[in-house]
Model the fold of this input.
Amino acid sequence: MPRGIEGERPHGERTAQPSTPTEQHKPQLEGGNGVPGIPPTLHELAHAPPEGSQGTSPVENVRLPKRPRAVFDCVVPKITIPPHHLRAMVREDILTEEQAHEDEQQWLEELRASNSQQLEGQLRRYEEMRDRAIKRQKPQQVQDIEQTLGPIREELHNRSSEDKRNQVE
Done:
């Protein structure tokens, strides 16, 4: 029977292809994400496929590359939540009173560590927030912000009193 293209008969009927792979079409071992030619990921190297699954045999004694410790020893800054947010979180049962008190003490410590210019900036921002809450008619938020403004004003007052005493001496 005459053949045109290899594996086809004259009327376009396909013949069965041989099942043995040629040297050119050898099956490749699966790599990363099961794709031939891509190296396996560290996760794939560390976690071998279950016994009896398709693919290569389980990976044994894999040595993961060492990474610089600086990558893992980074510091995550602690976020200090201002008291007006803490009070809302207590009302919403997100925090307990005890947790809120501890966080408020930390906020006060950071407040005392701030310089006068930072305190004045905080005072302005909280006063603007309070004014916006008044315009939006949110009395609870206004009250919470006022309670936050108190320690800032007190700290600024204490510093100005200290400055005056230092000038007199």
Residues 139-168 form the longest helix (30 residues).
